[in-house]
Design a protein that fits this description.
Elements lengths: L1 H14 L2 H17 L3 H7 L4 H29 L1 H16 L1 H4 L4 H16 L2 H15 L5 H22 L6 H21 L14 H7 L2 H22 L1 H8 L3 H29 L1 H21 L3 H6 L4 H19 L5 H31 L1 H22 L9 H4 L2
Helix pairs in contact: 2-9, 2-10, 4-5, 4-7, 4-18, 5-7, 5-8, 5-10, 8-18, 9-14, 12-15, 12-18, 12-19, 14-15, 14-17, 15-17, 15-19, 17-18, 18-19
């Protein structure tokens, strides 16, 4: 009887998407506490720009090699189960940044590789759980659940920026590890138990069907190359602000504004995609990316450096919803986790490898401000290519993200 009562009390907030929203809020909040400052921390540990870029590149390399395998495994054994196994391991690995401060480049490279091996599939799996949940509850909306991730990221980044003193970053990793442990408990209760697993189908047909879709492959290539323009902007933002003379408070403010600006985009992005087509929505996102890159290439004011992060909200937020909804519309429901992880591996993974090495070398070669200028030119060139190469997809590409 007690178990029945507990299920009845939990089920309504699950069915309304509140549990998934809470998981997004907490996980992205944890990410917002440490990821914007990681490269600054590595710089403090004595690493060069090329070494930081190599570490940035090893993370997506691991993703390329492992995300599709994680996705297929999750489709077979259960997506929720995989998330609950990976989260506490991820928490333990973050403590390596606290205990290994004197380890040097080799230590941080190995730590990044192992951490990425564990953490890389988590958000794609949660996205696929959310899309499964939306299939069963047509009144729900992916963007409106995912916006809570942006809210958590924003609030966490702002709080950390206010609390840190003298760029002492080690406490951030302690906070993040504890937060991930707590999030594991939340995920146990909050994530939908229906996992969409397919235990009988243990072959590569899911990946083959994805790679035969020419329009999806063209979309993946364009968004992969887009990483060359967008990833260095994100990776070196903390260093850019520190070089301008900004405090951690201003860095935290910029990160807060970036995530805050995503929230209205998450609410309306599915409607935008449906009305203007995924191709045009992607071009709009690229316009915002380019505007921010060119602004930072000439800016010398720390406050403008913080306020300029507002442009990152609509660019990243719109691109995210375009990508999730487009990929979801192009693959069968039973291979949804495979589709999301293959896309993530290809664009964030392979694209991140290229962008990490590219950004690190570019930073050492021309400096951070000129790096932003080059990024802007790359984005503009890709926008022109997208107008020529990409075909408009049917409006239903937005349906999964909109929830109807």
């Amino acid at each position: 009887m007690a178990a029945t009562t507990r299920v009845k009390s939990i089920a309504p907030w699950k069915s309304h998407g509140l549990g998934l929203s809470a998981v997004y809020f907490m996980l992205y909040g944890i990410g917002g506490s440490w990821s914007p400052l990681l490269n600054v921390y590595l710089q403090q540990m004595g690493l060069t720009g090329a070494q930081i870029g190599t570490i940035a590149g090893i993370r997506p390399l691991i993703g390329v090699l492992t995300r599709p395998v994680w996705g297929m495994t999750a489709d077979m054994v259960g997506r929720r189960k995989m998330v609950l196994v990976l989260l506490p391991i991820e928490a333990a690995l973050l403590l390596g940044y606290v205990w290994g401060g004197g380890g040097g480049f080799g230590f941080f490279l190995a730590l990044a590789a192992v951490y990425t091996l564990v953490s890389s599939p988590v958000m794609s799996l949660i996205d696929s759980l959310a899309l499964d949940h939306i299939d069963r509850h047509a009144d729900l909306n992916f963007g409106r659940m995912r916006l809570w991730g942006s809210a958590g990221y924003a609030l966490s980044a702002l709080a950390v920026g206010q609390l840190l003193r003298n760029w002492n970053l080690q406490p951030v990793f302690l906070f993040a590890a504890g937060g991930l442990a707590a999030c594991t408990v939340l995920a146990w209760f909050a994530l939908p138990r229906a996992s969409g697993k397919q235990p009988a189908k243990r072959d590569w047909s899911g990946i083959r069907s994805i790679l035969r879709n020419r329009n999806l492959v063209a979309f993946m290539i364009i968004t992969l190359l887009l990483q060359l323009g967008t990833s260095p902007m994100m990776q070196f933002y903390g260093i850019y602000m520190k070089d301008l003379g900004a405090s951690t408070k201003l860095v935290g403010l910029g990160t807060f504004l970036r995530a805050l600006a995503e929230i209205p985009v998450m609410i309306w992005a599915a409607t935008v995609v449906r009305r203007v087509s995924p191709r045009r929505a992607l071009l709009l996102a690229m316009a915002f990316y380019a505007a921010q890159a060119f602004l930072y290439s000439v800016n010398t004011n720390t406050l403008v450096g913080s306020l300029g992060e507002i442009l990152r909200g609509p660019s990243f937020g719109l691109q995210l919803v375009v990508s999730v909804s487009f990929v979801s519309s192009q693959v069968p429901a039973e291979w949804r986790a495979t589709g999301q992880t293959v896309y993530s591996a290809f664009t964030g993974g392979l694209g991140g490898i290229m962008a990490g090495a590219w950004g690190g070398v570019l930073y050492d070669w021309v400096g951070v401000q000129a790096m932003y200028r080059v990024c802007g030119l790359v984005i503009v060139g890709l926008a022109v290519a997208a107008m020529i190469v990409l075909r408009d997809s049917p409006p239903p590409a937005a349906k999964a993200a909109e929830g109807g």
